[in-house]
Design goal:
alpha+beta, Aminopeptidase, Nonspecific Lipid-transfer Protein, Chain A, nine-stranded mixed beta sheet, six-stranded mixed beta sheet, 13 helices
Length: 438
Amino acid sequence: MTGESDRYVVRPGQASDAIMLARLHASVQLQAVSGGQPHPGIAAWVEDLLDGHPSVAPDDFLVAEDTATGHPVASLVGLRQDWRLAGVRLPVAQIELVGTAPEHRGNRLTERLFAALHERHAAERVPLQVIEGIPYFYRRLGYDYALANDGAPTVSAGALPTDGGGDGLTVRPATVADADDLAGIDRRLADGNALVCPRDAAVWRYEIAGRRPADLARRVVAVLVHGDDVRGYLVHGARLSAAGELLVVAAACTRPADWPQAATAMHKYLGHVGKRYEASAGRPFTAVRPILDPEHPLVRLGPPGVPRRPRGWYVRTADPVDLLARLQPLLRARWDAADLRWHEPAMTIDMYGRAARLEFAGGELAAVTPVRGAVSPSTEPETHAAIPPGALLQLALGHRTLPEVLDIWPDCLLRDRVTEHFLTTAFPQVPVRVWPRN
């Protein structure tokens, strides 16, 4: 007997899918915003993704095709990028545009697309997949809330400075001629202590001038300058939101001592941009809404606003041992900075099904290798820590500290205080300063 699921085939996307995928996603994404009509910003974004986007090739789309018609009826895309966690490179696939035509829902097409995506990334050793989306839904597919996103206060338009300050720092729209300077700023940020998504000059040129005007993901890049010297950047929305808010998605300054003046110059600039958008949008400019963490310097040193609850990104890793192995230089550096030396040849971290063996030479971390997990990690004498995989993911990415994990997960168990001290040092909380390459 032929089942309904046999009607569909999952395949890589093709450049020739552009028109049909743009039509599909425009008709299923953000329908509450578009009043049930095709969303032109979504259509333009899909077209851009299939037409020279620096993080996407056509086959990064996965398509569920109706074999009866040969038409795509569901799809998603994985945008490939390299993030940096305190200088360590982490390949990431950001999942976007998950959608199914209404008449084909109920056939588990989303699950089939994600299974194909996970299989592909496992084969290509892409350690992390991240996605924003429906609350709880992606937990069913192996994802966990493991990265903070947003949470900075919304600043009323009336609270923005209108004059004064800056001390010679000003903000102007970026041009493609600024791309090399912007890439240099990102290279310096990548060596800091935050989780970031650096862009090279080619990607900056794309962000400044490469997108269609209607692209929903298009952002406007401005540069912080002192004379001819580019000292930072500010990235904001290309239009006001439905609530009249101007979104800010990234801000950087090369000299920490400049931040008080830079924050004033940036907020003044955002006020001018908001007023200009107000005139063209036909609705009032109400506020600046930073999609930043509350401790970002632009936020801390800017006008006070109305606090918001942080949101979260879902994150998945198929192999937490591999993730720890990638972070080996960072773990070693953190222990060295704290002058800690492990007193045994190895430390075993069990993740209830698989385990990581951290090998030490002269007290310093030398290797991370996978080993078989214990049947009962809590009673196994060779196990130093038993940490659920979701908790380990949050520790590894700096989303939670070990004391927080111990408070939340009763099945996170440590052998002794020495192990607790080492792992607390290994996994501090990390600022998330990611503007993903979507």
